[in-house]
UniProtKB/TrEMBL annotation:
HAMAP family: KhpA (MF_00088). Its main location: cytoplasm. It is found in: Cytoplasm. One of its GO terms (biological process) is regulation of cell shape. One of its GO terms (molecular function) is RNA binding. Belongs to the KhpA RNA-binding protein family. SUPFAM superfamilies: Prokaryotic type KH domain (KH-domain type II). This is RNA-binding protein KhpA. It holds the Pfam family KH_KhpA-B. GO terms for cellular component: cytoplasm. Keywords: Cell shape, Cell wall biogenesis/degradation, Chaperone, Cytoplasm, RNA-binding. CDD domains: KH-II_YlqC-like. Forms a complex with KhpB. It comes from Saliterribacillus persicus.
Amino acid sequence: MKALIENIVVPLVDYPEAIHVTEKEEENKIVYHLEVHADDVGKVIGKNGRIAKAVRTVVYAAGMKSNKRIYLDIM
C-alpha cells in the first residue's frame, strides 16, 4: 500500500525525495501518514481538497481486501 501511495503522489510534487509514508497498524484499522515537503502540501491537497479526496478514494478501494479500515493522513 505504501508503494501505491508513493506512485500516486510522486507525479504531483516538486520534491519527490521528501515523500515519506509510514504505516501504523492497530486492531481494526491501518493508518498511513503521508509526509511531503512544505512547498508540496498544497499540491497534494488540491483545490478544496479534491486531490486528497481522490487519493484517499483509491487507497480505500485498494484496501477493501483486508478486513481493516484504511485511513490516510496528509501531514
